[in-house]
Amino acid sequence: VLRHNPATGDVLVGGAFSAMNNDFSYGYLARLYSDGTQDTSFQPRVNGTVVEVVQTSGGKILIGGDFTSVGGVYRARMARLLPDGQLDTAFDTAGGFNGTVRAMLPLADGSTLVGGNFYNVNGFATSYMVRLRPDGLPDPSYVGRFNYYINSIVPQADGKFVVSGDFTQIDSAPFGRIARLLPDLTIDPSFDMHLGANGVVWETAPQLDGSTIAIGNFTMFNGLPRERFVRLSGLSAAAGGELEFTTTRYLVDEGAGSVVVEVRRNGNRSAAVAVDYTTVNGSATARSEEHTSE
To answer: Does pTM surpass 0.90?
Structure first.
């Protein structure tokens, strides 16, 4: 993982490497100057893989991954560093996480959203997402209810959060590996991807026009072929959501008798909708009796 600091030009480099420039004192996390040379004064001494790095507005650095100590002090899979790379002892997750930390998002109130492949944080049971208090301990007012791991938590300008990973359910409701949460961390019903991705979603990037870009190890999205990259249009927040045909062409032999035309509903599906439709005679003949189903 690479994180650029636009104020200084420095770049933080995290990963599974055990040494930098053949020096094992700089394994798993290092800092480079803008010209690519190493900042040897930055020496956090992390003992395992760093999966994510987040620079906070105060200059401190959040790191998450598969490590168990920083600077010789126990820190299970998440820690906060001071700007010089030394451990910030004011932030302590105590018993820490029982699995990999993959995503971290500092919030304006000083708390931090954390996602990954864990279900316990310092003895607190929470499925794959947790909100930490400013001191690093779990906030018991929120319990994650995802059924599998989270890769990214990305904020939108309106205060909502797009969450992606390999989950297929949230609180037993079906979600295809991507969802949006409201500022209070409840599910946003106006963002419903229906089938979603058929494989893990690694990252998302909300766009200024309201659309969202998603990348991952998927080949289909909502039943349509999409090879590892998809752009999701800004869906309407209206109660009925949006309707679309599942394919641009429907083919049927003349002797088959009938063809099933499927219409898919995306976006907000919290209310009932009615659809007016008609058929036009061409090479096929429109029947006088039509049947529909949701």
So the answer is: no
